[in-house]
Amino acid sequence: MKFLNSIYEKKILFFLCISFLLYGNTLKNGYALDDQFVTENSYTNKGLKTIKKIFTSYYAESDGKNNYEYRPIVKLSFALEHELFGVRPWVGHLINILLYAICLLLLYKVLLLIFHQQTSTFNLLIVLLFAVLPIHTEVVASLKNRDVLLCFCFVCKSSYN
Q1: How far is residue 138's CA from residue 75's CA, in Å, rounded to a whole number?
Q2: What pLDDT sits at residue 40?
Q3: Which of 5, 38, 134, 144 has the most CB atoms within 10 Å of its CB?
Q4: What is the pTM of this model?
Q5: What domain range includes position 52?
Q6: Does residue 45 surpass a pLDDT of 90?
């Protein structure tokens, strides 16, 4: 029981460890096929100079014919990343891992509200089960899926405020 109490006191550290244990191997990955829409071949690699274009263009554009979705916050996150660290794949993967850890923490807080009559152990087990689901691999490992991580964070955060 003492071990569980120490985990509860250090939840963010625990969720960071779980995230790095599951997805730390992505840090050595390069860009995936679809990451070009938001990384190397995108205007976001010029940093924050492109803010106006970020908020006035589509999420993915190619040759003026295949334009789809509007996700300026995600593009802004890539522009900020590229402004601070340059165009480096490992930084993008690190950010996705950190976002995943934040998602786990926010999910835990939402579960505490929903299952307030249950023990914290129950909620922690649900988050652990959620964390290890293999379906999350693409979301964390592919940089273009940062929109899913951010969306999950925003939904969870809005659920308990």
Answers
A1: 19
A2: 67
A3: 38
A4: 0.87
A5: 2-159
A6: no
Residue recorded with tokens 């794949």: 89
Residue 38 pLDDT exceeds 90: no
Q: Which two three-digit tokens encode residue 3?
A: 């071990």
CA distance 114 to 107: 10
- Collect all residues with Cβ–Cβ distance below 8 Å to 90 and sequence separation of at least 6: 27, 28, 29
Rounded distance, CA 109 to CA 11, Å?
A: 10
Residue 40 contacts residue 31 (beta carbons within 8 Å): yes
Check if the beta carbon of residue 93 is closer than 8 Å to that of residue 145. no
State how many domains the chain has: 1
Residue with tokens 């988050």: 127
Is residue 21 pLDDT above 70, yes or no?
yes
| Contact (Cβ atoms closer than 8 angstroms) between residue 40 and residue 130 | no
